[in-house]
Amino acid sequence: MADFPIEAVRARFPALSLTDKGRRRIYLDNPAGTQVPQAVADAVSLCLLTTNANLGGYFETTIAAQQVVDDAHQAMADFLGAPSREEIIIGANMTTLTYHMSRTLGRAMKPGDEIILTRMDHEGNVSPWLQLAEDLGLVVRWLPFGERSWQVEEATLNDLLSDKTRLLALNYASNLTGSINRVKSLTAIAKQTGAMVYVDAVQFAPHGLIDVQELGCDFLICSAYKFFGPHMGILWGRLDIIDGLKAYKCRCSSNGLPERFELGTPQIELMAGLTAAVDYFAELGGAAGQGGSRRQKIARAFEASIAYENPLAQRLIDGLADISGLTIHGIADPKRLGDRVPTVSFTVDGIVPETIVRQMNAENIFLWSGHNYAWEIVHQLGIPAEQGVVRIGIAHYNTPNEIDETLESVHRVVAMLRQQRS
Fold first, then answer.
1. Do 78 and 209 touch, CB atoms closer than 8 A?
2. pLDDT tens across 165-175, in order?
3. Fewest CB atoms within 10 Å of the CB: 29, 122, 272, 343?
4. Helix 294-321 × helix 60-80 angle, to 10°
5. What is the DSSP string of 382-415?
6. 199-247: pLDDT as tens digits
């Protein structure tokens, strides 16, 4: 952890130096959206000021705008390990893209076909498929997670598969428990029946290197604003799959890839910011001594950030474990840090999570309470959905001092609320 250039990293994020009436900010709301480096904001601004045009013309700004779009697709191909930028579909957000792709894939499904959804996923990878099933008469099979392992288990998945299974919708990491699923092995099991696999990697993407070719899945989706970029979603689809799909689109729009799935005028300025976000990772890897391709530098950046984040997560978990009546909903064993991202959720006996969060927000410690769209998780665990959990999410720009301040606040706020109840 000591080797990570935390001060140099923090210097690149202007928001980290902001204060409110002289009070510092501690950003631990990162699972809902991270702050951005200056380079991302600069790229968005530069695009708006110098390459602000629609696509398809022959004058300078439209040609430059097309280059911005092409660069963003290539940047995400490098980020995800995709062999071609044609496989990268960029849109408004993860949920919108998933709704669009679910309807596209539904063209080939018929009543009685089966889809598998997990009890561990964000609602953005559940509701689109549930509503597709309702529209088409599909059968939904529910895949719970293990409450000891906090992961989806291969044997449980295997028991649900049949020759009617058409799709498995699976998350890479949970936005509530932080648990990382063994996506590669789960995908291999599902593929044995011929099912397609659609992976939500929104929560994993800020914290680990994704290699879509190694995973073997058919689709993988993530959100740029969760990994220091602008508000947009990115969907990777395996070329031999997406090239055969008939998209919902305007009759006169392009049938090329990925254009047929990118409806309307693209968010060109945000694509400029997306490329800058990917390049931020590459620059971090370069600063850690890695040469070679952008992909190689990104891989090194994640090695460095994981080595920095994991001790912070354990520091947080250990400090929370000292509070009586507090339950951490997720992996707490230090030997299993590699099986989770640094998102830690908890409840405290007799205290509504929102009351804790309100007090801590008032101290300029930014975090969330509620179900956070992990609707199936709270129901499987028996947590009241209207209350949910307290969620603390670490990014690699957070510091040990921030974790210590946060722990001190949790201890003090819980003691105060208990005293008020007595």
1. no
2. 999 999 999 99
3. 29
4. 60
5. T--TTTBEEEEE--TT--HHHHHHHHHHHHHHHH
6. 999 999 999 999 999 999 999 999 999 999 999 999 999 999 999 999 9
